[in-house]
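Hi R.,

Here's the input for the adenosine monophosphate complex you asked about:
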Amino acid sequence: MTEHTLFTRIIEGEIPCYKLYENEHVFAFLDINPLSKGHTLLVSKEPAPSIDQLSPNSAAAVGKALPILSRAIKEATGAIAYNIIQNNGREAGMTVPHVHFHIIPKYVESKHTFAWEPKSLDATEAETIAEAIQLSLNE
Ligand code: AMP
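And here is the predicted structure with adenosine monophosphate in place:
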């Protein structure tokens, strides 16, 4: 049974949207609360709640669609740059638990930032966590 997330309802036409693009695996439309003009959401049709749970086919389709949409958005808006943001989990700022990518154009006059406070990589921590992640990758 298909889970009916908010985005599934948009994909199925139950909730209106400004649709931009659709193929077998993905659907793109304008964000209802844009950070800038042309702020777009690229959504996998598969209603995976986070990217680590997305199937290889859907992941490949999203990867293929991102540059296509980004090019079109850049050309249509005249943006000088853009950010691609993808949240996973409520604690990471995800409000709709259905895999989606934000494509957010940046203009000369744009004020929005995605600044964070970087710290230096601790060598001991880096060795430990790199080893743990490599182990997980090899499982
Ligand atoms: P996130 O916080 O990463 O889960 O992003 C969810 C995004 O969905 C937010 O930027 C919302 O503005 C957007 N959103 C929520 N409802 C709608 C809707 N009905 N149509 C278009 N975008 C929506």
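One thing worth noting: The domain at 6-138 is CATH 3.30.428.10 (HIT family, subunit A).

Cheers,
M.
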